[in-house]
UniProtKB/TrEMBL annotation:
Residues 471-611 form the RGS domain. InterPro entries: cAMP-dep_PK_reg_su-like, cNMP-bd_dom, cNMP-bd_dom_sf, RGS, RGS_sf, RGS_subdomain_2, RmlC-like_jellyroll. Residues 35-58 are annotated as: Disordered. This is cAMP-dependent protein kinase regulatory subunit. It comes from Hondaea fermentalgiana. GO terms for cellular component: cAMP-dependent protein kinase complex; cytosol. Residues 39-48 have a biased composition (Polar residues). Residues 210-337, 349-451 form the Cyclic nucleotide-binding domain. Pfam families: cNMP_binding, RGS. It comes from the Eukaryota.
Length: 669
C-alpha cells in the first residue's frame, strides 16, 4: 500500500494556509471526525490512487487525533488533552493515520491479523466468503476479532468512500511480552476483548449440539473457557491414538475426520469418516470420558487454513466447578456420539457397522429419554417411523390386547426397523422399563442412508424377517451366521471355499477404495508413492491368492472348473493384474457352496441356534403379512441386479491389460 510521509516543514506550511491551530479546532468543533479527516488529508497530500499515511510525532500536528480520542468511546475519554497528546507522540507509541481512497482493501481475507484499523471517518465494508457483506463506520474497528485471537483475517475490509483510519499493531497494544497495555489504549483493548468473546459465543451457538439445548447466557459463560487456535492447511489437529485432552469447534475452514494406519504405504487403511464444516464440534471424548487418559479414536486433519475453538479438559473442569449444572447440559448434548463410540453396550450393534457408518449414525442420531413405563411405540400404529437403538435401561415388548410379554430388550438391541422397511403398522408395543429408557433415534430418511447399503446390517434385517428362508449371502455377511457356517464347512472339509470367497472379496474391496488427494496430503502421504505401493500390493496379493487357493498343488486348493483355472493362468502369464481378476472364480465357488454345503446347513441345528439368538420374526405368529418378506426380497432383488451389473463391468475391465491408470483413478481430486 503506497503512502507519502509528511514532514514537519510541510505540515506547518499547510496548517498556516488554513489558519492557526486553534482556528482549525474551532472550525470543526463538534465534529472531530471531519477535523481528523481534513487534517490528515492536508498533511499527506491528495493522491487519489493510494493510501496516504501521516505519522504523528511531537513535532507534527496531532490535534485531529487527540480530538478524536477525546470524543471516541474506544479510548480512555476521562484522560486530559495533555495525557492523550503525550500518549499519541510518546516513545512507546507512534500512531499511524491513513486516508484511504474509495474501493481499497485495508485488509484481505486470509492474511495474518497483525493490526486493527479504527475508523475515524468514512465507512468500510466487510466481505467474507459465504456471508452477507457488513458495514463499519466511525468508532468501529476493522479486524478486531481476528486481532484479538491472533488469527487470519476472516474477511476482506474494503473502503466504501474515502476513509480516515488509525492503524494499531500488536506491538503497540503489547510493547513487550507480558507488558501492560498503554493507558490510552485500554478502552480499545477492552472493546476488542468483548468482540472476541461475542464471536466465540456466536460460533458456539452455531454448533448443532448446543444451539437448541443451551441458552445464550450459558454459552457466553462457556465462551470464557475457550481459546482460539489456528492450524495451517494440510496439517493434523490430532492423530488416532494420541491422548485426548481438548475438545474443538471448527470456526472456519475445512477439515476431515479419518481412520488410518500411518504405517500403511498403500493408504488402503485410510477411511474418510466425514467432512468437518464450520460450526461442527469434534473430540468430545476428552471432556466426558470416564477414562483417566482417553485416546483419540480418529485422526482429524485440515484441508485449508482453519480456525478452531479449543477447550482443554483442565479449562472445562474449572468452568464446571463454577457452574456444575452446565456440565450435565454439555454431556447430554454430546450423548449420542459418546454412546455410539464409547459404550460397550452400543457395540453389540455397532460391531456390524463400518467406522464410516458409525460416524454417520453418531451425527444423525438424537438421544431420546422415556419415562418409566412410557410407551415408545404402540401396536397397530403407523406413526413414529423411527429406528431406535437402546442406550440405557431396558424395554419390554408386549403383544395383543392383554399385553402379553414377548421379550425384553437391553442396551445394544434395537427396534422399529421393520416398520421403516415395510411401511406396515407396528406389530407390538415397546414400553420403557421401571427405570426409564434412553434410546438413540434415527428418522426414516437417515435410516435408509445409513443402513440399507451396509451389507452386515442389511443381512441381519433379512435374517430377522426371512429366518430360514434366507440365502447364502445373508449367512456370509452376518457375523454369527458366518462363524456357524464355517464350523459346518470344517466338518465337511470345505472351509477353503469360504476363505477363498472372502479373500477375493477383500481384494475387490481394495479396488473400490477411493480417497481424495487433499486428504492424503493432509495425512502426510506422497501421492505417487501411494500409487506405486497400491500396484505392488495388487501384484503381491494376487499371487498369494493364486498360490494358496488356485494352484493345482496348493494346500487349500478350491474346486474350480478347468476354464476358470486356465483363464487365471493366462492372466498371470501376461501380467494382466486387476482387482476383479478372481471374480468369475469367486462366483463359481459361491454357486458351489450354495448348491452343496449351504443346502445341508439350512436344516442344521447350528443355523437354528443362530436364528433363535438373532430373534427372527414369524410373520404368521405376529400377524405380519407375507408382503413384508416380499418387500425385503424386492430390495434384495434390486441389490442383486446392481451387483450383477457391477460384476459385468468388472469382467469387461478384466479383458484389458492393467496399468497404473486404473489405480491412479482411485486417487480423486
Amino acid at each position: 500500500m503506497g503512502c507519502v510521509e509528511s514532514s514537519p516543514a510541510r505540515a506547518v506550511t499547510e496548517i498556516s494556509n488554513v489558519g492557526t491551530r486553534g482556528q482549525q479546532i474551532a472550525q470543526y468543533e463538534g465534529n472531530p471526525e471531519a477535523f481528523a479527516h481534513q487534517s490528515a488529508k492536508s498533511q499527506t497530500g491528495s493522491d487519489a490512487h493510494s493510501s496516504r499515511r501521516g505519522t504523528f510525532s511531537p513535532d507534527d500536528h496531532k490535534d485531529a487525533l487527540v480530538a478524536f480520542m477525546m470524543r471516541s468511546p474506544l479510548f480512555a475519554g476521562k484522560q486530559s488533552n495533555r495525557k492523550l497528546s503525550y500518549a499519541v507522540s510518546g516513545p512507546a507509541m507512534n500512531l499511524q493515520v491513513d486516508v484511504v481512497p474509495r474501493g481499497v482493501a485495508i485488509y484481505t481475507q486470509g492474511d495474518p491479523a497483525n493490526e486493527i484499523a479504527i475508523i475515524m471517518s468514512g465507512s468500510v465494508s466487510r466481505h467474507a466468503e459465504g456471508e452477507q457483506p457488513g458495514k463499519l463506520g466511525p468508532d468501529e474497528i476493522a479486524g478486531a476479532v481476528e486481532f484479538k485471537h491472533k488469527i487470519w483475517y476472516a474477511a476482506s475490509y474494503v473502503t466504501e468512500e474515502e476513509t480516515c483510519i488509525i492503524r494499531i499493531s500488536q506491538h503497540m497494544m503489547e510493547p513487550s511480552p507480558g507488558a501492560r497495555t498503554p493507558s490510552s489504549l485500554v478502552g480499545v483493548q477492552k472493546h476488542i476483548t468483548e468482540k472476541g468473546n461475542i464471536w466465540i459465543t456466536k460460533v458456539l451457538g452455531s454448533v448443532d449440539l448446543f444451539s437448541k439445548r443451551i441458552s445464550k447466557e450459558r454459552l457466553a459463560k462457556a465462551a470464557e473457557a475457550f481459546r482460539v487456535r489456528r492450524v495451517g492447511a494440510y496439517e493434523r489437529v490430532y492423530t488416532l491414538g494420541e491422548n485426548a485432552n481438548a475438545w474443538y469447534v471448527l470456526a472456519n475452514g475445512k477439515a476431515v475426520a479419518t481412520m488410518s494406519n500411518d504405517s500403511d504405504e498403500t493408504a488402503f487403511s485410510v477411511t474418510e469418516l466425514k467432512n468437518i464444516t464450520p460450526g461442527q464440534g469434534f473430540g468430545e471424548c476428552a471432556l466426558i470420558s470416564k477414562s483417566k487418559s482417553p485416546k483419540r479414536p480418529i485422526t482429524v486433519s485440515t484441508l485449508s487454513d482453519v480456525v478452531l475453538l479449543e477447550i482443554t479438559k483442565q479449562a472445562f473442569d474449572k468452568l464446571i466447578s463454577t457452574a456444575p449444572d452446565l456440565r450435565q447440559e454439555i454431556i447430554d448434548a454430546m450423548r449420542a456420539r459418546t454412546l455410539l463410540t464409547g459404550s460397550s453396550d452400543a457395540s453389540k450393534f455397532t460391531r456390524f457397522l463400518s467406522p464410516t457408518k458409525i460416524e454417520m449414525l453418531a451425527s444423525m442420531a438424537a438421544p431420546v429419554t422415556f419415562n418409566p413405563h412410557q410407551d415408545v411405540v404402540s401396536e397397530g400404529t403407523v406413526h413414529h417411523k423411527t429406528f431406535y437403538l437402546i442406550a440405557e435401561g431396558v424395554a419390554r415388548v408386549l403383544k395383543g390386547i392383554d399385553e402379553t410379554p414377548v421379550r425384553e430388550l437391553t442396551p445394544g438391541e434395537y427396534f422399529g426397523e421393520l416398520s421403516l422397511v415395510t411401511g406396515r403398522p407396528h406389530s407390538a408395543t415397546v414400553r420403557a422399563g421401571p427405570k426409564g429408557l434412553v434410546c438413540l433415534a434415527v428418522n426414516e430418511d437417515d435410516f435408509s442412508r445409513v443402513f440399507l447399503d451396509e451389507p452386515t446390517v442389511y443381512a441381519e434385517l433379512r435374517l430377522r424377517v426371512l429366518g430360514a428362508e434366507c440365502n447364502l449371502r445373508d449367512i456370509l455377511y452376518q457375523q454369527d451366521c458366518r462363524q456357524a457356517f464355517m464350523r459346518h464347512c470344517e466338518k465337511e472339509v470345505a472351509q477353503e471355499n469360504v476363505q477363498f470367497y472372502f479373500a477375493v472379496e477383500e481384494l475387490e474391496a481394495r479396488g473400490q477404495h477411493r480417497i481424495r488427494k487433499g486428504v492424503l496430503k493432509s495425512l502426510g502421504y506422497d501421492i505417487e508413492a501411494v500409487i506405486q505401493s497400491r500396484f505392488n500390493h495388487l501384484v503381491k496379493t494376487s499371487h498369494e491368492i493364486y498360490d494358496k487357493f488356485v494352484d493345482a498343488d496348493a494346500e487349500m486348493c478350491v474346486n474350480l472348473e478347468d476354464n476358470h483355472r486356465r483363464d487365471l493362468e493366462a492372466q498371470f502369464a501376461a501380467e494382466e493384474y486387476s482387482y476383479e481378476m478372481f471374480t468369475p472364480a469367486k462366483d463359481a465357488i459361491y454357486k458351489l457352496m450354495a448348491g452343496d454345503n449351504f443346502m445341508r446347513f439350512e436344516t442344521s441345528q447350528g443355523l437354528a441356534d443362530v436364528l433363535r439368538q438373532i430373534g427372527p420374526y414369524d410373520p404368521e405368529e405376529e400377524g405380519r403379512p407375507r408382503s413384508m418378506a416380499r418387500k425385503i426380497q424386492s430390495i434384495a432383488s434390486r441389490r442383486e441386479r446392481k451387483r450383477e451389473r457391477k460384476e459385468f463391468m468388472a469382467k469387461q475391465r478384466t479383458a484389458n491389460r492393467f496399468d497404473h491408470s486404473l489405480i491412479r483413478a482411485q486417487i480423486e481430486e
